[in-house]
Amino acid sequence: MATEPIDMEVAGMCVNEFGGAIGMPQLCGEWFGNQIFWLVVALVAIYFILSRIALPRIGSVLAERQGTITNDIAAAEDLKVKATEAEAAYDKALIDARAEAHRIVAAAKADIQADLNKAIAQADAEIAEKAAESEKAISEIRASAMQNVEEVAKDTAQAIVAALGGSADAKTVSAAVEARMKG
Predict the structure, then answer these.
(1) Lowest-pLDDT choice from 25-34, 53-62, 76-85, 126-135
(2) What main location does UniProt list (predicted)?
C-alpha cells in the first residue's frame, strides 16, 4: 500500500500531505469540537454506568456494611449486659458459697468440739475410775505392807533379843513393835 498525497486544503493544518497527524492531535484546534463531543459522550456514558450500576452496588455494600456494624454493636451491647449480669450472678453465687462453706466449717467445728468434749469427759471418767481403783489398790498394798512390816519387825526383834541372850515372849515383842510403829 502506497501512501498517496492528499489535498492539504481539505485536510487542514493538523494533517500532513499523507493524512498523518502533525504533532499531537489532541492539541489541534480544528479537532477540538470533535474531541469535546466524544468527551461529553464518554462522560455521559460513564455517568450512566456509574449511577445505574456501580454506585447502587457500592451504596448497597456500604448500607449492608453499616447495618452489619450496627447489628454487631447492638449484639455486643447485649452481650456486655449479659456478661455483667452473669458476673453479678457469679459474684453472688461465690459469696453464697463462701457463706455456706463458713457455715459448714462452723458446724463441723461444733460437732468436733462436742465429740472432743464427750471424749474428754469419758476419758476423765475412766481416769477417775482407774485412779479410785489405784487408790484402793495402793491402800490395800499399804495395809498389807504395814502388816508385813509389823510381822517382820516382830520376828526381827525376837531374833535380836535372842541373839543378845535375852528371852522375850511374843506378847512383849508385839507391844514394843506396835508402840514403836505408832510413833
Answers:
(1) 25-34
(2) membrane
The cell numbers describing 80, all together, are 456486655
Which are the contacts of 96, defined by CB distance < 8 A and separation ≥ 6?
Answer: none
- 30, 23 Cβ separation under 8 angstroms: no
Question: Crossing angle, helix 170-182 and helix 55-163, to 10 degrees?
Answer: 140
Q: How far is the C-alpha of 111 from the C-alpha of 47, rounded, in Å?
A: 91
What residue type is 107 in one-letter code? A
Strand partners for 21: 15
DSSP state of 31: G
Query: What is the C-alpha to C-alpha distance for residues 31 and 38, in angstroms, rounded to an integer?
Result: 11
